[in-house]
Design a protein that fits this description.
Layout lengths: L4 H12 L13 E6 L9 H8 L2 H4 L2 E6 L4 H9 L5 E5 H10 L6 E5 L6 E6 L14 E4 L4 H4 L1 H8 L7 E4 L5 H6 L5 E5 H10 L4 H4 E5 L10 E5 L1 H6 L1 H20 L1 H9 L7 H13 L7 H4 L6 H14 L8 H4 L17
Parallel strand pairs: 1-2, 1-3, 6-7, 6-8
Antiparallel strand pairs: 3-10, 4-10, 5-8, 5-9
Helix pairs in contact: 2-12, 2-13, 4-5, 5-16, 7-16, 9-14, 12-13, 13-14
Length: 345
């Protein structure tokens, strides 16, 4: 069955009457497994705060969260049934829907509304622009969102990828591989690389140059909350409650950044809390702070821009079909307009 915005609105409407400011506390909680985009870091704090403050409990959800191995991989984990929910890259979702629409999940809360994708190079190198990536050795995790989007970026930037060599390695080796000049550039999200490089002893503001996809016209969305279409059809009230809980977690993060980082440290005591707070602030200011936020509210998208983003990904990847926006994203489960977040830091 094709999921349309009308179907979602109808399904979610039944839940609206019972879900006011917060969903009613359920007698029997639904067990949900969620895969995150990456290791436990500052920009995941809202998920942990929502759990610690009991918001998922209020929504009738018993949530467990696992560390991820890439934003692109999160979409595949949900599509394949290994996880019920993923925090993943909507562009990976577009690619899947463009080739296998029946397998594709759907995004119900779009959190990163600016393109964070980049190729990071050493500032001392002679790579100044995208054109300079020709003939170079680049590297990254196979499931990295920026690496998966590189064919699209190459298309937009006019690169011939036939003479660009790409080396795959584990994500925790990325910054060290760049620092040691074992590759000439690495793929990733700007702030993931920036602060991981800082942890490795580098000064990212002086030592690294970022060739960012957004500077070449790729005005894309990225990470959002991804769920199976069957869940949206069969459990609309639960989905609405889950989105509400995460939205509350973001509000609490904005209110107390230190408490937010403490929630991450409770899961990963070895993190550098000072750097993770910096990473969190940078993510809120960059990846999540598109000007459209003031009118759409966090979690929603601008319809025209979203359609253009889909068209860009389809064209750049030569996908066999162009998914309808309603196949990729639904606003039917978002909090009420007066409960949404219209300003970050």
């Amino acid at each position: 069955m094709t999921i349309t915005r009308r179907n979602f609105t109808k399904l979610a409407g039944a839940a609206t009457a019972t879900l006011l400011a917060a969903p009613a506390l359920a007698q029997d909680k639904t067990k949900i497994k969620m895969i995150l985009n990456w290791r436990y870091q500052g920009p995941q704090s809202w998920f942990f705060l929502a759990k610690d403050k009991g918001y998922f409990d209020e929504a009738g959800i018993d949530l467990t969260m696992d560390q991820g191995n890439g934003s692109g991989a999160a979409v595949g984990h949900v599509a394949g049934g290994a996880y019920d929910v993923g925090f993943g890259d909507v562009n990976a979702l577009i690619r899947l829907a463009g080739t296998s629409p029946d397998e594709a999940p759907i995004c119900v809360y779009q959190m990163y509304n600016k393109p964070p994708f980049t190729v990071a190079v050493l500032a001392e190198s002679d790579i100044q622009t995208a054109e300079d990536l020709q003939g170079r050795l680049l590297g990254g995790s196979a499931n990295d969102g920026a690496l998966k989007l590189f064919p699209a970026f190459a298309n937009v930037a006019g690169l011939d990828t036939s003479d660009i060599e790409i080396l795959n390695f584990k994500s925790n080796l990325r910054e060290q591989m760049l620092k040691n000049k074992e590759v000439e550039g690495v793929f990733g999200y700007v702030n993931t690389i920036r602060f991981s490089a800082k942890l490795s002893g580098m000064n990212p503001d002086e030592d690294i140059r970022f060739i960012s996809y957004g500077d070449y016209g790729m005005d894309l969305y990225s990470n959002g909350l991804i769920i199976p279409k069957a869940m949206a059809e069969e459990s609309p009230e639960m989905v609405k409650g889950m989105v509400w809980a995460i939205n509350q977690g973001v509000k609490d993060t904005l209110t107390d950044l230190d408490a937010a980082v403490d929630a991450v440290a409770a899961r990963e005591p070895l993190i550098n809390k000072e750097i993770e707070k910096e990473r969190l602030i940078a993510t809120l200011q960059d990846e999540m702070n598109h000007p459209e936020l003031a009118t759409t509210g966090l979690g929603n998208v601008n319809a025209d821009r979203f359609k253009q983003a889909i068209d860009l990904v389809v064209k750049a990847n030569a996908l066999p079909r162009t998914p309808e926006p309603s196949e990729i994203f639904s606003d039917a489960f978002l909090p009420a307009e007066d409960d949404r977040i219209y300003k970050l830091l």
